[in-house]
Amino acid sequence: MSVPDSPSAAAGQAPPDISSAPAPIVRGEPVQVADGVFVIPDGRVPIVPNVGIVVGERAALVIDTGVGPRNGAYVLDQARRLAGDRRLYLTVTHFHPEHGFGAQAFQGAATIIYNRVQHEELRRKGAAYLDMFKGLGERVAAELADVEFVDPDVTYEGEARIDLGGRTAVLREWGPAHTVGDQTVLVDDAVLFGGDLIETRMFPIAPYMPPYDVDVDCGRWIEVLDTLAAIGPRTVVPGHGEVTDLGLIHDVRDYLAHVRERVAELRSAGVPVEETVARLDREARARWSTWANPEWIGFTVRAFFAAA
Question: Distance (Å, rounded) from C-alpha 203 to C-alpha 181?
Fold first, then answer.
């Protein structure tokens, strides 16, 4: 896989400009969001994910690493501080750089678990995404300078359960949706780590960048969100943005469903794709005026238009 010289060359527009954003560094103390479940918040800093640490009686699970080895090492230190001498596991919600490109820090220190499809997607696209993200600015490139891709110790298909001792984490693959290998982590049927399937007060990231990456499936994404909503978690940890509750899943689902419906209407009326993008961009910015990163609206519109 290769990537364009700039993201705008792929989809006719660019994702948010983060060149003046703070360095993408995972910072701060883990915050307990449920019994034994901690989150290092992203602080709404671009290219920083919400990082999870789940601590049981015998073992602890880390969810996502931050971008690059320095962030991975920081997350590992925080996990060790909370877990003591308990066994460590690491998993990643999907292959994108800010979520998993710090995994090398965990080699030999944790058992690394990916779903098989996610691992294959990393092998297929990882190098190209590394180059793409280096082009997002000097601060991002600095964190990615020494990245080495690592293979998991364990891969699974469908679902994997990790007994941490008095606390159970269920890893489940869902793709294709945001990516081919999307994964959620459900802790004790109560706390859901959703990765970039769900983000708080942000327009969903649909990485539809033909011909370089067209694997996003927004229709399937809606189906996944319906299933996640039916599970009914009390606490929802998004890939980016504030930790919240079940309502977030409905919010993201309703946005995607709205775009799908409007694209179908306009496409059937013969409205060309660029005019459809322009109309829905205006509509979505007005309706979801408090959401960040409206630059992603057009990517989602194009993905639905291509799939219609």
Answer: 20
Quick one: which H or E segment has residue 84?
Answer: none
**Angle CA 279–284–289, to nearest 5:** 135
How far, rounded to the nearest angstrom, does the alpha carbon of residue 117 sit from its chain's CA centroid?
A: 15
3-state SS class at 201: coil
Task: Determine contact, residues 113/155, Cβ cutoff 8 Å.
Answer: yes
Residue 293's alpha-carbon distances to 53, 201, 254, 279, 303, in angstroms, are 27, 9, 17, 17, 17
pLDDT at 12: 53
Axis-axis angle for helices 247-268, 273-287 (nearest 10): 150
Block mean pLDDT (10 aa), the chain, length 308: 42 77 96 98 98 98 98 98 98 98 98 98 97 95 97 98 98 97 98 98 96 95 98 98 98 98 98 97 98 97 95
Rounded Cα distance, 301 and 245, in Å: 27
Structure token pair of residue 222: 């809606």
pTM of this prediction exceeds 0.70: yes
Residues 6 or more apart whose Cβ sits within 8 Å of residue 123: 149
Pairing of strands 154-156, 159-163: unpaired
Residue 12: which region, alpha, beta or left (left: phi > 0; alpha: psi -120 to 50)?
Answer: left
Contact 290, 266 (CB under 8 A): no
